[in-house]
Amino acid sequence: MLRLSLAAFGIYFSTLAAFSQSLQDSSVYKNRKLKLDEVNFVSSYYKQDGNNSAVTGGIGTEKLTDFGTTIDVKFAKYDSRFRKHTLTGEIGVDVYSSASSDKIDPNTISSASSGDKRIYPSITYAIANEAKRSTISINGSLSTEFDYFSKGISLGWSKLSKDKNREFSAKGQVFLDTWKVILPIELRGSNSLEGNKPRDSYSASFTLSQVLTRRLQVLFLADFAYQKGQLATLFHRTYFTDGSHKVEHLPDTRKKLPLGIRLNYFLGDNIIIRTYYRYYKDDWGLQANTFEVEVPVKITPFFSVSPFYRHYQQDGVKYFAAYQQHDLSETYFTSDYDLSTLTSNMTGAGIRYAPPGGVMSMKKFSSLEIRYGHYNRSTGLHADIITLYAKFK
Asked: Of 67, 162, 177, 243, which alpha carbon lies 20 to 30 A from 385's?
């Protein structure tokens, strides 16, 4: 099944803010006391449907709904060396209902996985040295759902050039997950896979941003990721040509390499053209290309509209085959259409309101944005998502 994580929209908003802001010297006054600096609230509703559920071997309903909310609170102060210390706490909650997951045990009215919630708190501490134009940060996170528990840590570093037109950043992340094995009801009891299984993920991310001209900015991105452990989802069924079936079986390691580039062009004072391209490749045989374009148009000094379009194409993993198309001699097998050859398109728009006196004349309520997107995939899956983003400063 496909679930568009709310975290992806959080990354979008944070990247958008960081990439579009102008670089300015901080004020002479430096607050030495820890105080509330910013609050961000993101909430979304997501709904999808399709007919290629991996739970039932690549056929059957993919109906799912997800309501997600995250809130982060940022505190900041300066120390005696005029370094800015920032402490950010975040918590997110996703509540979902999945008809396809309920087919793990079709003999019951409702199984544990048909509806659940995911809770994911995190905390980040950063120190920005404005004299040296560098920032270091550390982040810790947790995530829990009915069948897994995850803990993560990341370290980050960034450096600005003397003219503040170029910035390089690097981040290392580790996630240590424990999955509770849930098998299809008919395959339980005599399967050695039962119990808890680990899944560890390691990644290194690098970005380089550069102001090329007064109107053109570029950002390069590179990620290197490695996973090991239980990478197959063990309540996904796979059906073979003779009519028999087993649980999905995939390699226990995976290497990933995504590379990307963003270009922002300021077309006058009221229009920005934002483009993004990403190439992805892994050692399971999956290759993908993503292209995005968004054109924010400022209608008034404090109101803008941002239509966007995203195209995605992938060549599937070498272990995928459709329902009853796998041969029993194969070592690895899956009928999860997320890993198949496919194309998808997403279109939508956002509206942003950021009046100088604050939204609804509340000075601290600095901006409000609403985005809607419609998603279509060549496999027949379709989805809609609406997201609300509010900032308080």
From this structure: 177
Start-to-end CA distance of the chain, whole Å, equals 38
CA-nearest of 103, 66, 377, 89 to 237 is 103
pLDDT by residue (tens digit) across 113-129?
A: 466 799 999 999 999 99
The predicted model scores a pTM of: 0.87
Q: Are 42 and 84 in contact (CB under 8 A)?
A: no
Spatial separation of the C-alpha atoms in residues 160 and 313, rounded to whole Å: 35
* Three-state DSSP state, 246: strand
The residues, ordered by sequence, that sit 6+ positions from 36 with a Cβ below 8 Å of its Cβ are 73, 74, 75
SS (H, E, C) 45-113: EEEEECCECCCCCCCECCCEEEEEEEEEEEEEEECCCCEEEEEEEEEEEEEEEECCHHHHCCCCCCCHH
- Per-residue pLDDT band for 30 (boundaries 50, 70, 90) equals low
Question: Encoding tokens for residue 186?
Answer: 């008919």
pLDDT at 6 over 50: no
Q: Which fold has domain 6-392?
A: Porin (2.40.160)
d(CA 308, CA 110): 38
